[in-house]
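Quick one, tokens below. Sequence please?
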């Protein structure tokens, strides 16, 4: 039975805060629908203190910004994007188009068609998150999306040059310096200056996530995203210092980011808590990591490895780091997670920044029903059918007539009847006059 050494704030407190977010987002979206670019500019001025002549960067502006970025940063961006591109290509290769003949002259097929326009939201209110450009834009381009609109906010009124470079090198067709709900809404509904997209992907704060949620259906989205989550699983062999460092590595994303430890060792649990309290005051990002650990950090002690994995699946967290003697056992035992990071040599930060797997992952329990962003998200898997054999056409027509009339769908039945009549001369069982 699990013992909880550290609790998070009650869930009701989090739910109440989300209610205000929903109301604010709904108002912004409605205003942008009505006033378009004028409303977009109003909210950009209000939230980001940003109101240039054009929110979209020209090719000349992009080239100038990219040229200002240190060569080492450019080289690193290129390297990481190649890791993301390679993994996405392997994902694409795993998707098979096919055509099969299931009956004589009956051909059924499947093909994959990329969405024609995708929006990539790259957050930047607190930090220049260049890695999100790799994950959203590179993956879309590997999928074959012809138009990728990328948008990121200015940071304290300044252009985030490294992020713009990452967007450009990733292959974005349009780069906009626009953030928050106004960016998501503009991409979704369109304005005089921005043509709408079909799907929006990318992480963001609670307002961005809520905007995507409210617009879903009108457009596609990658997934419903919330604050970054980390779940560290540790046995008695784990290093509590590593546990603490890695918990705080994700807590710094924001004051509402859950960081949870589940361990089979009370000693590891207590030492990890002590290490967190020791490290935290000296972190440059303690203003975010501190409240996240205080309000959303948890530590659970369980009796066995079996119980550890059972509890981990109940959390269904975005990132699960496995610091045990046999980390690959998690591949067999766990079914509900966004991404696994196996062994001390791996860390969530690798996945966030450099290793090549996608860091846009399900949060708030969404791992129960979906994985994260991948190349297939930008593809529509569609089917086609063709019947050329007259015997098959007649047989299917008769079957369709019988099956449809069981369901009282006379119109469907008549479509089948006509095929049987055309192919085999069957008499129509209804009056055509």
């Amino acid at each position: 039975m699990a013992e909880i050494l550290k609790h998070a704030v009650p869930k009701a407190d989090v739910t109440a805060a989300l209610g205000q977010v929903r109301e604010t987002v709904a108002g912004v979206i409605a205003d942008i629908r009505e006033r378009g670019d004028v409303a977009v500019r109003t909210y950009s001025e209000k939230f980001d203190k940003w109101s240039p002549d054009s929110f979209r960067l020209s090719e000349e502006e992009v080239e100038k910004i990219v040229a200002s970025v240190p060569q080492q940063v450019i080289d690193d961006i290129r390297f990481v994007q190649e890791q993301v591109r390679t993994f996405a290509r392997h994902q694409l290769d795993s998707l098979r188009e096919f055509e099969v003949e299931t009956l004589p002259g009956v051909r059924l097929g499947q093909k994959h068609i990329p969405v024609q326009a995708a929006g990539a939201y790259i957050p930047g209110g607190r930090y220049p998150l260049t890695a999100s450009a790799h994950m959203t834009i590179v993956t879309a381009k590997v999928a074959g999306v012809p138009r990728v609109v990328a948008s990121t906010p200015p940071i304290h009124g300044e252009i985030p040059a490294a992020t713009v470079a990452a967007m450009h090198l990733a292959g974005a067709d349009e780069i906009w310096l626009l953030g928050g709900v106004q960016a998501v809404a503009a991409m979704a509904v369109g304005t005089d200056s921005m043509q709408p997209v079909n799907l929006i992907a990318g992480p963001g704060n609670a307002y961005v996530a809520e905007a995507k949620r409210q617009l879903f259906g009108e457009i596609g989205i990658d997934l419903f995203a919330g604050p970054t989550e980390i779940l560290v699983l540790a046995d008695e062999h784990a290093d509590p210092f590593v546990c603490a460092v890695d918990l705080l590595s994700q807590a710094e994303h924001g004051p509402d980011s859950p960081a949870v430890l589940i361990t089979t060792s009370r000693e590891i649990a207590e030492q990890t808590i002590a290490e967190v309290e020791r490290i935290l005051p000296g972190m440059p990002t303690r203003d975010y990591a501190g409240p996240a650990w205080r309000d959303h950090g948890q530590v659970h002690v369980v009796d066995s490895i079996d119980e550890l994995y059972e509890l981990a699946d109940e959390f269904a967290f975005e990132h699960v780091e496995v610091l045990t003697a046999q980390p690959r056992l998690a591949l067999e035992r766990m079914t509900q997670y966004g991404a696994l990071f196996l062994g001390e040599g791996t860390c969530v930060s690798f996945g966030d920044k450099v290793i090549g797997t996608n860091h846009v992952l399900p949060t708030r329990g969404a791992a129960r029903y979906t994985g994260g962003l991948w190349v297939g998200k930008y593809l529509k898997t569609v089917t086609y059918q063709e019947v050329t054999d007259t015997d098959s056409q007649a047989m299917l027509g008769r079957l369709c007539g019988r099956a449809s009339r069981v369901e009282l769908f006379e119109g469907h039945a008549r479509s089948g009847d006509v095929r049987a009549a055309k192919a085999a001369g069957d008499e129509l069982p209804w009056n055509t006059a």
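The domain at 17-94+111-222 is CATH 3.40.50.1980 (Rossmann fold). The CA atoms of residues 255 and 329 lie 32 Å apart.
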